[in-house]
Write a structure and sequence with these properties.
Layout: E1 8-10, H1 14-32, H2 37-57, H3 62-86, H4 89-97, H5 105-129, H6 137-149, H7 156-171, E2 175-177, H8 188-211, E3 228-231, E4 237-241, E5 260-265, E6 272-277, E7 279-280, E8 286-287, E9 294-296, H9 300-304, H10 308-320, H11 328-331, E10 345-352, E11 363-364, E12 367-372, E13 379-382, E14 387-389, E15 398-404, H12 410-418, H13 421-430, H14 436-456, H15 463-472, H16 479-492, E16 496-497, H17 508-515, E17 517-518, H18 520-533, E18 538-544, E19 557-560, E20 564-572, E21 576-580, E22 587-588, H19 597-615, H20 617-630, H21 634-650, H22 662-673, H23 676-691, H24 700-717
Parallel strand pairs: 16-17, 16-22
Antiparallel strand pairs: 1-2, 3-4, 4-9, 5-10, 5-19, 6-11, 6-18, 7-8, 9-13, 10-15, 12-15, 13-14, 18-20, 20-21
Length: about 725
C-alpha cells in the first residue's frame, strides 16, 4: 500500500537569504529613507534577518510558527498604531512616498519594522517552508513598485543587487526529503497554500499600485493636477489652493534626470518660472503665505506698462522738451534708449511633452501676454508672479508667451535712488510725459513689493545672516548694487556647486557658514535670506533654465528635469523684479576626488561581502559547491560528491583524506554519525565509477542529498 505523506524540506542556505534581505533593505531604504540610507539599511537588514531566523527556527514546529507569525503581526500593528496616534496617517504616508524630503526617526523605525516583517517572513516562507524560487520575487517587487511610483527611482546598481540577491536566494532554497519507505506522496495542501499566497501578495501589490501616487518629479507631472479653482467674491479673481505646498530640500546625492518635460521655442532664451515661495522654515524648506494664493485676470494692462526702458526714454524725452524742469539735469543724464526698443518684446512657445495635464503656466519674467491653443477662458496671475489657467489645459498643451526683453537701465535705477519715485512719476503724468496707466503700474508694483517685504519679515532672519548681509553690502547705497554684490559674493567666498555633496544639515546657516557646498536651491535660499536681510524685497523662485546644451536639431530648447533651477527674485525700484542667481559665479565641482554614491555603495557591498565571506565561509563554500555541480557531467558530479564527503568525514577524527580508503570513510561515518548507509552509497558509487561500469545508473541527485544529510548530522552533533 502506498504511503501518502507531505514532503519535508531541509537544507535552506541562510547566507543566501541574508544577502537577498540586504538587497531588499538597501533598495527600500534608498527610496524611503535616503537621507539616512546607510544606517537605516543596516538596521533593516538586521531586523528582517532576525524575523527570518525566528521563523527558520520554527520550521519543524508549525504551531509555534503560526504563533510567531501572529506575534509579529500584533507587534507590528501596535507599533504602527502608536506611530499614527502620535502623528497622522497623511504625514506617515507622505514620509513613505515623498522620497525622504524630511527625515523622521519615528516614521523611519515604523517603516523598517513594517517592511522587515513582510520581507523577513516572506523570504523564509518561500525558501524554507514552501520553497518556490519564483515566489521569492514577490517581496522584491515592493521596493521596485515604490521606486517606480514615488519620487524615488532605483539606480542600476540597486537593481543588479536585487537580481543577484534573488538568484542566490533561489539557489539556496530548501530541498524536499522523503523517508525511504515512501513510494507516493500527495501535496494538495501545498498547492492550496501556493494559491492562497499568490492571492494575498497579488492583493498587496495591487493595492500598492492603486494607492501609491505617481510622482514624476516633473513640474508638469500629475501632482500639479491638485490645483483647485475656487471663485472669489468679486469678478476677475481666482483663489488658488495647493498650487504647491512647499519647496524641495536638498539632501544631497542628487542625480540629474533626462526626462523630457517640454520644448521651448524662442530667439531670446531666458529663465522660465513655475512657482514662488515666501516663508523659510529652516530644515523643511520654503512654504507659501496664504495671502498670495489669489490670482487676477486683469493683469495684462499693468504688466504691459512696466517697461523700464520705455519709462527712461519717455522721461528723458520730456526733459529735452523743457518739461520736468525740477528733474531735468538728472533726466538728461539718463542713458538714451533707441525709439524702436521702447517696447521691445520676444515670443516663446511652450510645448508640453511628458503627456501631463495641468493648469500651471510656465513663463518668463516680465511676461505681458499668453495665448493658448483652443482656450478662450481667463488666465490668472498672482502677486508673486505665478500663472495658471481657469481650467485644465489637457495633455501636452501648447501656448505662446510674449515678454519684455530685460535691458536694465542702471542710470534710471540710480535716478530713483536720488529722487522720490512717486513724486517724479506724478509730475510726469500731470505734464503728459507718461500716461496715468504707466504711473499707476510702477507705483502699484512698488507698493506691492513693500507690502510683500513687510509680511515676509514676520519671521525674523538669523542674526548671523543679517550680520553677513551687512558685511557684504557695506558702503553700498543702491539696492541694485547690493543685490549684485550678494550675487557675486558666493563666487568670491569660495562656494562650490556640488550635486553629489550630502550635507549634515539642510539649513541655510549650515550652507552659508560651514559647508559652502550645495545646489541651486541652497544658493537661492541663502541669497533670498541675505537680500531680505539687506532690506530688499525678495522671493524664492523655482523654474527652469534654457541653456545652449539643451537645444535640439530643430533649434528648440528641449527642457528636461535636469534643467530645473532655483533662484531669487528681488524688487529694484525702477527696474522691477530682477533675477539674482547665486550659482552664477561659483565653481562647479566635477566629482574628481570624491566617491560618488554608486561607488560608495559598491565599496560597502564589497566590504560586506568580505565580512560575510569570513563569517560564513563554510556556508559560502557549500553554496559554491552546489552551484558548481549544476555545470558538471554525471560522472563529474559523483566524483565531486565523493571527494567532498571524504574530506567532511575525515575532518571528524583528523584522518588525512587522501590516504583514507572507502572502508575507513564508511567506518568513521557509521561510528561517529550513524550515517553508514548514506556514506556507503556515496563511496560505492565512486568505486563503481573508478573501477567498474562507467555508465552507472546511480543518481547524483540522490548522492548529493546523502551528502547534505551527512553534513547536517555532523553539524548538529558538533563533530
Amino acid at each position: 500500500m502506498n504511503k501518502r505523506v507531505r514532503p519535508k524540506y531541509h537544507g535552506a542556505e541562510i547566507i543566501t537569504a541574508l544577502i537577498y534581505l540586504c538587497a531588499m533593505s538597501a533598495s527600500l531604504m534608498y527610496v524611503v529613507c535616503r537621507t539616512r540610507f546607510i544606517p537605516c539599511t543596516i538596521i533593516m537588514t538586521a531586523v528582517s534577518f532576525g524575523i527570518y531566523c525566528l521563523f527558520y527556527k520554527m520550521r519543524n514546529k508549525r504551531i509555534y510558527a503560526v504563533l510567531s507569525f501572529l506575534a509579529v503581526v500584533l507587534v507590528t500593528s501596535a507599533v504602527v498604531g502608536i506611530t499614527l496616534s502620535q502623528g497622522s496617517l497623511k504625514s506617515f504616508v507622505e514620509f513613505i512616498f515623498n522620497n525622504s524630503e524630511s527625515f523622521d526617526a519615528g516614521f523611519a523605525g515604523t517603516v523598517i519594522l513594517l517592511f522587515s516583517s513582510i520581507i523577513g517572513f516572506a523570504t523564509c516562507y518561500f525558501s524554507v517552508y514552501l520553497p518556490r524560487p519564483s515566489f521569492l520575487m514577490f517581496p522584491a517587487l515592493i521596493p521596485m513598485i515604490l521606486s517606480a511610483r514615488t519620487a524615488g527611482g532605483l539606480p542600476a546598481e540597486f537593481v543588479v543587487f536585487l537580481a543577484a540577491g534573488f538568484a542566490l536566494a533561489a539557489l539556496g532554497t530548501a530541498q524536499p526529503v522523503f523517508p525511504d519507505d515512501v513510494t507516493y506522496f500527495e501535496d494538495k495542501n501545498s498547492r492550496k497554500e501556493r494559491l492562497a499566497v499568490v492571492g494575498i501578495f497579488g492583493v498587496i501589490l495591487a493595492l500598492l499600485l492603486a494607492v501609491i501616487p505617481r510622482n514624476s518629479e516633473t513640474p508638469m507631472g500629475d501632482y500639479l493636477d491638485t490645483v483647485i479653482n475656487r471663485r472669489a467674491s468679486f469678478y476677475g479673481t481666482n483663489a488658488l489652493t495647493n498650487f504647491t505646498q512647499s519647496s524641495g530640500v536638498n539632501h544631497g546625492a542628487n542625480e540629474l534626470s533626462d526626462d523630457l518635460l517640454f520644448y521651448a521655442s524662442t530667439n531670446f532664451p531666458v529663465n522660465v518660472s513655475r512657482w514662488a515661495f515666501d516663508k523659510y522654515n529652516g530644515e523643511s524648506g520654503w512654504t507659501s503665505l496664504s495671502d498670495y494664493g489669489t490670482g487676477w485676470s486683469s493683469w495684462k494692462t499693468q504688466k504691459q506698462s512696466l517697461s523700464a526702458n520705455a519709462l527712461a526714454s519717455k522721461l528723458r524725452q520730456g526733459a529735452s522738451e523743457g518739461l520736468l524742469e525740477e528733474y531735468s539735469s538728472m533726466l538728461l543724464g539718463l542713458s538714451a534708449v533707441p525709439e524702436q526698443r521702447y517696447y521691445t518684446s520676444a515670443r516663446m512657445t511652450i510645448r508640453v511633452a511628458d503627456n501631463s495635464s495641468t493648469k500651471v503656466i510656465i513663463h518668463p519674467n516680465r511676461t505681458i501676454n499668453v495665448t493658448i491653443n483652443d482656450y478662450d477662458k481667463s488666465i490668472y496671475r498672482t502677486l508673486k508672479d505665478e500663472m495658471f489657467a481657469d481650467t485644465n489645459l489637457g495633455k501636452n498643451a501648447v501656448y505662446t508667451l510674449e515678454y519684455y526683453i530685460s535691458n536694465p537701465n542702471e542710470s534710471l535705477i540710480n535716478l530713483f535712488e536720488e529722487v522720490d519715485m512717486g513724486e517724479l512719476l506724478t509730475a510726469a503724468e500731470e505734464q503728459g510725459v507718461i500716461t496715468n496707466t504707466e504711473k499707476t503700474a510702477f507705483l502699484s508694483e512698488r507698493e506691492q513689493a513693500e507690502e510683500y517685504y513687510s509680511k515676509t519679515l514676520a519671521d525674523p532672519i538669523d542674526p548671523e545672516i543679517v550680520k553677513l548681509a551687512k558685511e557684504i553690502t557695506s558702503g553700498l547705497t543702491s539696492n541694485y548694487e547690493k543685490a549684485l554684490a550678494i550675487e557675486r559674493w558666493f563666487g568670491e567666498a569660495g562656494f562650490i556647486y556640488d550635486l553629489g555633496y550630502v550635507p549634515e544639515e539642510t539649513t541655510a546657516e549650515y550652507f552659508l557658514f560651514e559647508s559652502k557646498r550645495g545646489i541651486c536651491s541652497d544658493y537661492a535660499t541663502a541669497a533670498t535670506l541675505l537680500l531680505r536681510a539687506a532690506g530688499i524685497p525678495t522671493r524664492y523662485v523655482e523654474g527652469f533654465v534654457l541653456d545652449e546644451d539643451s537645444r535640439d536639431e530643430y533649434g528648440r530648447y528641449a527642457v528636461k528635469a535636469a534643467n530645473a533651477h532655483a533662484y531669487a527674485m528681488s524688487y529694484i525700484e525702477g527696474l522691477g523684479w530682477l533675477e539674482i542667481d547665486g550659482t552664477k559665479y561659483v565653481e562647479v565641482y566635477d566629482g574628481g576626488d570624491a566617491l560618488s554614491v554608486p561607488a560608495l555603495i559598491i565599496l560597502i557591498i564589497i566590504a560586506a561581502a568580505a565580512i560575510a565571506a569570513l563569517l560564513f565561509r563554510n556556508q559560502i563554500s557549500e553554496a559554491i559547491f552546489a552551484i558548481s555541480l549544476v555545470f558538471r557531467s554525471k560522472n563529474g558530479k559523483i566524483r565531486s560528491i565523493y571527494l567532498r564527503t571524504r574530506k567532511l568525514v575525515c575532518s571528524i577524527n583528523g584522518t588525512e583524506p587522501k590516504s583514507a580508503s572507502s572502508g575507513e570513510i564508511k567506518d568513521i561515518a557509521s561510528r561517529s554519525l550513524g550515517m553508514g548507509k548514506e556514506t556507503e552509497e556515496i563511496t560505492d558509487s565512486a568505486d563503481i565509477l573508478l573501477y567498474g561500469d562507467k555508465n552507472t545508473n546511480i543518481s547524483p541527485k540522490k548522492l548529493y542529498k546523502n551528502y547534505r544529510l551527512i553534513r547536517k548530522t555532523k553539524r548538529k552533533m558538533k563533530k
